[in-house]
Design a protein that fits this description.
Helix 3 packs parallel to helix 4 and helix 4 crosses helix 5. A six-stranded mixed beta sheet has the order 1-6-5-2-4-3, with helices on both faces. Helix content is about 35%, strand content about 20%. The mean pLDDT is about 100. By secondary structure, it is of the alpha/beta class. It binds adenosine-5'-diphosphate. The site of adenosine-5'-diphosphate has 21 residues, from helix 1.
Length: about 170
């Protein structure tokens, strides 16, 4: 039986199999959670990400966790909110689904997500939370390895949105 949990915290401290990074399409680091993950993982992460030559929105790429407690980092560029008529919902669901597929491929049992696209990318939080929880729940019905998916929320408003969606 698998479960979804919602907690408040800093995803860089997550001690599990994989954390997901809300990256940008260059995969070369940025602000927000991306910057925090790169700082905590160390410079070797840049070198590993450089080899991908970027990543399209909604897809995902896996690296080692380097200096993080997590074994792997799964990098996915979520969509930039542009009013809702530019496939934002579908692209956000793709980010969650493709990240979970990689986690399964690497036999991860515990996976943590940040709130993808709801920071600088401006995706409305309640709408993003519903898409995230629906997509994760659907995926877990067919997962063989993943036991727990933890939504790691950085602030109380984000935490409440995911708790409501759950
Ligand atoms: P995006 O560009 O996809 O919107 P951001 O990094 O700007 O990504 O924000 C995504 C979410 O990650 C926001 O809710 C932000 O507050 C949160 N966040 C920032 N730092 C951390 C962290 N260390 N751990 C977990 N979440 C974080």
């Amino acid at each position: 039986m698998s479960e979804i949990r919602v907690i408040r915290g800093d995803i860089t401290t997550f001690d599990g199999d994989a954390i997901v990074n809300a990256a940008n399409t260059t995969l070369m680091g940025g602000g927000g959670v991306d910057g925090a993950i790169h700082r905590a993982a160390g410079p070797a992460l840049y070198a590993a990400c450089e080899k991908f030559g970027g990543c399209p929105t909604g897809e995902a790429r896996l690296t080692s966790g380097f200096n993080l407690p997590a074994k792997y980092i799964i990098h996915t560029p979520g969509p930039i909110w542009n009013g809702g008529n530019y496939d934002e919902d579908m692209l956000l669901a793709n980010s969650y689904r493709n990240s979970l597929e990689l986690a399964e491929e690497y036999h991860c049992r515990t996976v943590a997500f940040p709130s993808i696209s709801t920071g600088v990318y401006g995706f409305p939080i309640d709408r993003a939370a519903k898409i995230a929880i629906t997509t994760i729940r659907e995926f877990l019905q067919m997962a063989n390895y993943i036991e727990t998916v933890t939504m790691v929320c950085f602030d109380p408003t984000t935490e409440q949105a995911y708790k409501n969606a759950l």
